[in-house]
From TrEMBL:
Membrane-crossing residue ranges in chain numbering: none
One of the GO biological process terms: nucleobase-containing compound metabolic process
Name used for this protein in its record: Deoxyribodipyrimidine photo-lyase
Molecular function via GO: deoxyribodipyrimidine photo-lyase activity; DNA binding; FAD binding
Source species of the chain: Altererythrobacter lutimaris
Amino acid sequence: MSKPQIVWLRRDLRIADNPALYHAAKEGPVVAIYVLDDEAAGHHAYGGASRVWLHYALEDLQTSFGKHNAKIVLRRGDAVEELAAIANDMGADTVHANRHYEPWWRKAQGALVEKLDLKLYDGNYLLPPGSVTTGSGDPYKIYTPFSKATLEKLPPRDVLPEPETLSSPDNWPQGDTLEDWQLLPTDPDWAKGIEDHWEFTQESAHDRLEWWEGHIAEYDDARNLPSVDKVSQLSPYLHFGQISPVQIWHELKDKRSQGWTTFEKELIWRDYAQNVICQFPSYASESYREGWDDEMDWRDPHKDDEAARDLEAWQQGRTGYPIVDAGMRQLWQTGWMHNRVRMITASFLIKHLLIHWRHGEQWFWDTLVDADLASNATNWQWVAGTGVDSNMFSRIMAPLSQSEKFDAAEYIRTYVPELAGLDEPYIHDPEEHGCLPEDYPAKIIGHREARERALSVYQDFKN
């Protein structure tokens, strides 16, 4: 019998179109390993909401493997050490893995190749990060030319089928149980809203894709309207690899609509963000543009009690700006937020409250079920004006007019029940219209005051 083939699972928790699993199954008995390595990721270890999703995604994948009379071995600790130990115990030489580009995974891959035969595959993006380059062979920094170059290189690789069989080793290594990891909160159990909102399986990812196929033509017009369900909500499934972007692209490629054209560019943005984090590994914690971290006069919640109170009000959805509060409460309840509202809430924290984007990045990291390192950091730095490709800081989103422009009334009623009885246009700014409910806060800062303060601080920084 051929030697066992170790498959190292990370954010690729699917059984179909999984290159590492597909190729390992052709070479011998498969031993799939998932190592929960919190130390390697440091302050970007999975946050609370992501841990909830991880629990159920692993549970689902264990079921998929069980249908092949196979299983997933769970270990906790240093990923390189655990994989090397298992390989040594089983007499295995080869580890198959899909490439991951987060800095800690790149470091781990480099360390593992010194110990074992590590076969890496491209499985999590439309095109391998680093493969889309300028004419001189350099990586792109700006999204628009990157997007155009990616479109010229498409289609992506073909979708790989689920392995027909997964042969098993003579003996299985010992592992943890999923319950040992205590990924689900218990005291208190704050995850019920997340559990009620989502189904966490590979099958539900494909069900959502099937639904989305029938609605994607509406995406270009309706994607900015948080009150209607006209976005894919595939992001957490993509993040944990329960469905691949290649599967999505091939399913939708024959669509002829502006909606598909726009959505395809969203998939490309995901590739772009990964290319950014490959070029700038510290992008999730350091501003790309010089001076923004230590010379801009940010309000520091660690040193300023008023800034700390404002940050807490933003986190809790108690700012007095209904669309901001609806977004932050949707995030807390479901682990997800509509993309238009993500931009509004991010802009509010950075520009209305003058709090550094890193505080928002960390909060989203802990509360989003789709908390992807590259996408989260790239989006925050885009809004802040600090990124390699970003909006100008002086472009300050007006949340009250954005709320009315994008017809957010029903969205607000859903997530801010104190305002559910208000009609339009009063619901967008009840304080201005003189109908502020007793149980809903007044604005923590006026829009004009916030805008003038932000622009003044920005001008001082530029000078």
